[in-house]
Design goal:
The protein is an alpha/beta fold. The chain has one domain (about 5-235): Aldolase class I (TIM Barrel). It has ten helices and ten strands. The strands form two sheets. It has an eight-stranded parallel beta barrel, surrounded by seven helices. Strands 2-3 form a two-stranded antiparallel sheet. α7 (about 140-150) packs across α8 and α8 (about 170-185) packs parallel to α9 (about 200-215). The longest helix is centred in the C-terminal third of the chain and has 15 residues, at about 200-215. It is globular.
Length: about 240
């Protein structure tokens, strides 16, 4: 299997434009490529119902939406309400920004309480917690500790970045998060997101995951690449540009 063919089913195709001009029909069509579907579509809560209707039974496999995005506010009631809204509209995955600034300020119980509350509010959804690792200044130990904390309160996946901060995914952050995942007492996945645009960059994260978690661990259920531009390069490499 070529590198591009391997990456295609791992992509969370993301459309989170600030101008609210996302084209639902175009996003659905783009996610159903001539070489098969991407792993998931991810967009704003306001688009979930339309995306669900557009997707029908044809895939991609999962529909995701962001929650508490992008600031990671500490208002647990608002985050829970948004999570419930997304699930009711048809989202199967929630990409939740936790209150990382509160955590870094020492308000750890409050930061983790929000994650736990959203987990309880949306028990059937896959909860992908965005650590926003760029705020941790490449401190691997601190990133690993944060990852372990959110896993303990219900995260199903750890995600690097919102893509809205100056620093997105980095190899240092990815390895630290994967170390937290390896130490977990239950299966937890990983999503690299933020600034990943090339095949080489994406494959680098696949390599880190395999190095930490072992050969065969990388699959759509456990590993994702969050991207809006990467798919074009993947399809170009597959001769579908």
């Amino acid at each position: 299997m070529s590198a591009a063919a391997r990456l295609l089913p791992l992509i969370d195709l993301t459309s989170l434009q600030d101008d609210q001009a996302d084209d639902v029909a175009s996003l659905c069509a783009k996610g159903r490529t001539p070489r098969g579907p991407v792993a998931a579509l991810c967009s704003w809560p306001r688009h979930v119902a339309a995306l669900r209707s557009c997707l029908g039974e044809a895939g991609p496999p999962w529909l995701a939406s962001v929650v508490n995005f992008p600031a990671g506010a500490a208002d647990a009631d608002a985050a829970c309400a948004e999570a419930r809204q997304c699930v009711a509209a048809g989202a199967e995955e929630l990409d939740l920004v936790w209150p990382y600034e509160a955590w870094l300020a020492g308000e750890r119980e409050a930061a983790l309480a929000l994650v736990a509350a959203v987990r309880e509010a949306a028990p059937g959804a896959r909860l992908k917690v965005i650590l926003e690792t760029g705020a941790f200044a490449e401190d691997a130990a601190a990133i690993e500790e944060a990852g372990a904390g959110v896993i303990a309160v219900g995260a199903d996946m750890l995600k690097t970045s919102t893509g809205k901060s100056p620093t997105g995914a980095t190899p240092v952050a990815a390895r630290a998060m994967l170390e937290a995942i390896r130490a977990a007492e239950r299966p937890v996945g990983f999503k690299a997101s933020g600034g990943i645009r090339s095949l080489e960059e994406a494959l680098g994260y696949v390599g880190i995951a395999e190095d930490v978690m072992g050969a065969g661990w990388v699959a759509p259920e456990t590993f994702r690449i969050g991207a809006s531009r990467l798919l074009d390069e993947v399809l170009g490499a597959l001769g579908e540009a």
